[in-house]
Design goal:
By secondary structure, the protein is α+β, with helices and mostly antiparallel strands. The protein contains 2 helices and 7 strands; from the N terminus they run αβββββββα. The protein is about 20% helix and about 15% strand.
Length: about 260
């Protein structure tokens, strides 16, 4: 009994601290959550490839942050979304692109200040981001925030996270799952206006080339036979040409008659 009051008082003192630590451990999920990223218009072309996809820039999204705030793009496997921790340092353990889908299920890339996302946008500005466009740093462990090619068709989910120094200050909601294109075997690619596969067309082309080679060989044999027959004919001896020698008479100028 004598110790019951101090224990109860201590528990009440620790409760706010535990709640604060819990919020920090979950990446400050009480951050302002803004509109989710979306894919760029399909009219631009190349919206999704086998290793990249294109997003609209977050223009006019982070309107209440300081000018030196850095905006990061988070790319995640859907399994990492529920427990994603906003407080983990970009490029730190658990956030390296080179380990994505191996020991890491989310990474951060395409960092830039809010000044590069002006609002409203200027006419003629390119306002899209291509995710997965850097190939040189894909295996460079010194570039853990590399915007490297995505390792498979996905799906992936993305969000933008605003950091003031190392402190998260705002975030967007997670996007809808994004699935990339997958390459089809060449033999299964249909040809418009034809019921034949690409493999059949390739075989036809090869046969056409072989036929052309055979025809060229036949023509060469005919020409060679013609040359051989003409070379075996006899030639008549040329007639002897007699050259007569003539002595020319020199004509000397006669002296002029004296007057």
């Amino acid at each position: 009994r004598p110790h019951s009051c101090p224990r109860h008082s201590g528990a009440r003192t620790m409760l706010p601290l535990l709640l604060l630590l819990l919020a920090t451990a979950h990446g400050l999920d009480d951050l302002p959550t803004l509109v989710a990223p979306v894919l760029a218009s399909s009219s631009l072309g190349g919206q999704k490839t086998a290793s990249t996809f294109v997003l609209d820039q977050p223009r006019c999204v982070f309107t209440n942050v300081s000018k030196d705030t850095v905006i990061w793009l988070v790319v995640a496997d859907p399994r990492a979304v529920p427990d994603f921790n906003n407080s983990v340092e970009p490029g730190g353990p658990g956030r390296e692109f080179q380990q994505f889908l191996n020991s890491t299920f989310a990474y951060m890339t395409l960092n830039t200040t809010i000044l590069n996302y002006p609002c409203p946008k200027n006419p003629g500005d390119i306002t899209v981001l291509r995710v997965g466009s850097e190939t040189r740093c894909a295996k460079d462990k010194k570039r853990p925030t590399c915007n490297g090619p995505l390792p498979g068709p996905g799906p992936y989910r993305v969000k933008f996270l605003a950091l003031d120094g190392s402190k998260p200050v705002a975030q967007t909601a997670w996007s809808e799952p994004i699935t990339l294109r997958t390459a089809q075997p060449s033999g299964n690619i249909p040809v418009p206006g034809s019921g034949h596969s690409a493999g059949m067309i390739a075989l036809t082309s090869i046969l056409s080339i072989l036929f052309a080679i055979l025809l060229a060989g036949l023509v060469a044999m005919l020409l060679w036979g013609s040359d051989a027959s003409s070379g075996s004919s006899t030639f008549s001896k040329p007639e002897a040409v007699t050259v007569q020698r003539y002595n020319t008479h020199h004509v000397y100028d006669q002296p002029a008659a004296r007057l």
